[in-house]
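Quick one: structure tokens for this chain, please?
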Amino acid sequence: MDEATLTQQQYYIATKSAPTDDRARVLKYGSMFAVFDRLGDITHDGLGEQGIYYEGTRYLSDMTLRLWNERPLLLSSTIEANNFQFTADLANLDVSRGESVVIHRGTLHLLRSRFLWQNVAYEELAFVNYGMEPLYVPFSIFFAADFADIFEVRGMSRDNRGRHLDDETSRNTIVLAYEGLDNVIRKMRIECNPAPDQIAGSEMRFELELKPKQARSFHFRMECEDGGVSQSDAPSQSFSYPQARSRAFTEMSAAAEAFPRIHSSNSRFNDWMIRSVADVQMMTIGNREQNYPYAGVPWFSTVFGRDGIITAMETLWIAPSIARGVLQFLAETQATEVDEPREAEPGKILHELRRGEMANLGEIPFARYYGSVDATPLFVMLAGNYYERTGDKKLIEQLWPNILAALRWMDDYGDVDGDGFVEYAPHGSKGLIQQGWKDSNDSVFHADGSLAVPPIALCEVQGYVYAAKVAAAHLSSELGDERTCTELESQASTLRQQFEDAFWCEDLGVYALALDGKKHKQRGICRVRTSNAGHSLFTGIASPERARKTAYSLLEADFFSGWGIRTLASRETRYNPLSYHNGSIWPHDNALIASGFGRYGFRNLAGKIMLALLDVSSMMDLHRLPELFCGLERRAGEGPTLYPVACSPQAWAAAAPFLLIQACLGLRIEGLHNRVVFERPCLPEGIPQLSIRGLRVGSASVDLFFERQADNVRVQVLEKQGEVDVIATL
């Protein structure tokens, strides 16, 4: 495979036009999500990603509200802190007749509200006339549906598409429909109560009369239907707006109870926590895969193996139910046979799951795709971590055949050339070329910038395999299989020594990015300074002395921008702070590295990363950490530079602060013994006090308070319910 082929960006997200500074609003419930502007309209502005989506298809591509044939004046808009509802305060512009203004700006107030629930977007338009005279208000809403596959929205072109069916209308309903090449009929059903005065094509028109101070409301119900081929997230029922709102809010509130309440003396930190909890919940609630967080909106709102596992690891100490859901679903979908187009091999863990038209037809390979080298060892790691956190032996017994299959995959299929390292080489013609978490085609290269040639053994993947075998050894011992335990411990020890010998670069102060496969058994080393090396601390494969050198290297100026650790050091050949993986900053990457710092006792360094990302959060709209942002140097008085097509929210970015807290506090929960341990806890200077209330350990719960005092942190138990021990070492 030549370099021209390698650098072709098959699944690049096209930038059709420059995005505006006015960031889009996002709602999500289950397989449905909506992206729209701050007025609540769906337009073609920015990147062209706005719409209402369901099961990988954009069902509504245009929804424009007009008052007196003009777009309303935006006063303000927001998404509630719990992510439940969008609201926009709108008003009329000046309405003129000839040269005279007959209705002054702001006479009419319109409160526009929207939420999603069970495949339906519910909307309320609440009008109030604040004028002194009766008001005649002509308004309209135009709808259009392109039924574009999410990959078409991302920029891929198709030779053929299905056909749009004739619109169906009744007194209060418009039905827009499309028959795909996969023979699925997809419909967007739009109902309004009370009925509009006229429906012309796909536009609803209203003639509203309001007395002074009179209020009137209109309710819309926009339902996505897919012909019954895909099972709905829930049985469709025609709830009124108030009924649906009450039921949806109750469901969301119940889900929120699963999370402990984290509060500090820093108000910015509290805003970050509130949004992060809400984002993790939004990415999880309503999904057909119970307790499985989807990766990110808009491009990755579906199951991803790697993303789900890492999000589960980040949230394990506060919400182990997510880890349980992730483990169960990935075990159910674990590959059992070789299928080269899907990159499937026995024991391999799922990379990605798609349900749109292009996936159904095989135009993209992602209907059920296994092209990641790291999801399989990460799955075993998560199983071990979950058992330590919960003591749930029953689930581990159920998963044990899957864990053994994953271990066999690492040995039989993962080690392509039999040198003891797990590597990858793409098999299918349509899949991913790079199969680690940095999956851009140009993300793995040598110091001179030349691209690595497969098979490629990534630095962090060897750490994941090491940690997986250590975890599986412990689990096998707990299940009474000492022979397997001894064998796995020996394999892990051998891998650790091989890793140290092959990957360490003394002159760079970090582990090499990768070993490439130009010559069988005589690999070239990708001697490049990348954040991948930090994952060796997260997994524990690094020796203590080299872990210390790596940690301090990652905080040098060429890595640490002031906002976080870059994916690639600025002195490297392919460094580009505006790129996806070669110099940008990813919150989840920083959280994993900080966890590694904490593992080796560098909690003050973990605190430095926490404060940097806290500053990022405080500069972001809604205090939401995006998937990534640009790696430009921090400049006084300015915020971080946004990456134009980053998902926001993104599950593993939203979950990052929870792993950062764990790293700083040296927190470990031993579920088998109902024990919470804090090993030399640390709080950074910006967070002198912290409380965690409602932390569950088995059937017990505990409320905790932390206070920084000189070089120590005081740990106080405020209240306990049930049997749970709290141990702190200073």
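The chain is about 30% helix and 25% strand.
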